[in-house]
Design a protein that fits this description.
With 299 residues, this protein is an all-alpha fold. 70% of the residues lie in helices and 1% in strands. It contains 15 helices and two strands.
């Protein structure tokens, strides 16, 4: 499949999840209007939609129809959006810009942003619980809820954010840094792949392990590239403040490893992720392309 064809496929998936999210989010005309407006502002303002893409593309590799995966794709993006709203708060990273626009607490207010994040989180699990897509058993639905919950809590994203806050102003080693980011960033990326895998009852343990390893490798590679772009990127391209990590004295891959070594580590993880896809042969071409994208991207 050509690069143009792959990019067209991914744009189709991005449009698909955007439309689904627009449908499941309450409109701003429904009480409480301001809270619903803040939710829609936080979720529908763009973004790479990497996590939903991973859900759909893993499903494609496993022969699962996209219609079966709309709810899990939307659910993981709702969790991601809630995490960004809360990460941007003054008590966390205190950011003013997200996706080229004022952060949710700046566009609305801090209290509304907190409530919007809270509501997005529970909406994600409500979607998974209520979804009745064909071909998904009750056991698979329960497994998806568990996967997303584990990735969101203290053994996942929230735990990683807590470690990140504790690391500010401290010197940490590479092992500590990777452990932190496997939780903060990697856990939700891993969940995105496994949500689709949970809908494939014929998946073998070896194939599950291959997808699990792939997801962990690209999750870490994604965070490394984020750290690199915080050094080399631009606010205009990224839609957020550049150099914020250094200004807050937050440990990053370039600060711990050096810029060149950080780039090499990202490439190493990308190659290993692609190698893990061998059991799926050509069916996983789009997943291999995404592994390259996470380290080649400039946004």
């Amino acid at each position: 499949m050509s690069t143009d064809a792959l990019e067209t496929r991914l744009r189709g998936y991005q449009a698909r999840v955007q439309s689904f999210l627009d449908t499941v989010l309450p409109t701003a005309e429904i009480i409480p209007q301001r809270l619903h407006a803040a939710q829609r502002y936080a979720v529908l303002s763009g973004g790479k939609r990497l996590r939903p893409l991973l859900v759909y593309c893993t499903g494609e590799a496993l022969g699962i129809p996209a219609s079966t995966l709309d709810a899990p794709a939307a659910a993981v993006e709702l969790i991601h959006s809630y995490s960004l709203v809360h990460d941007d708060l003054p008590a966390m990273d205190d950011d003013d810009l997200r996706r080229g626009r004022p952060t949710t607490h700046r566009a609305f207010d801090e209290a509304t942003a907190i409530l919007a994040g809270d509501a997005l989180q529970v909406l994600a699990f409500s979607l998974l619980a209520r979804d009745r897509a064909a071909g998904v058993s009750s056991a698979a639905r329960l497994k998806m809820i568990q996967i997303l919950a584990d990735a969101s809590g203290t053994e996942g994203m929230a735990g990683g954010q807590a470690l990140d806050l504790c690391a500010v102003g401290r010197s940490i080693n590479l092992e500590e840094l990777e452990a932190m980011h496997r939780l903060k960033t990697g856990a939700l990326i891993r969940a995105s792949v496994l949500l689709a895998a949970a809908c494939a009852p014929a998946l073998t343990p070896a194939e599950w392990e291959a997808l699990d390893g792939y997801s962990q490798d690209i999750g870490l590679a994604f965070q490394i590239q984020d750290d690199i772009l915080d050094v080399e990127g631009s606010t205009l391209d990224l839609g957020k403040t550049i150099g914020a990590d250094a200004a807050r004295a937050k440990p990053t891959y370039p600060s711990v490893l050096g810029l060149d070594a950080a780039k090499a580590r990202a490439r190493e993880l990308q190659r290993r992720a692609c190698d893990r896809l061998v059991p799926f042969s050509g069916r996983a071409q789009v997943l291999a392309w995404l592994a390259c994208y996470v380290v080649d991207r400039r946004v």
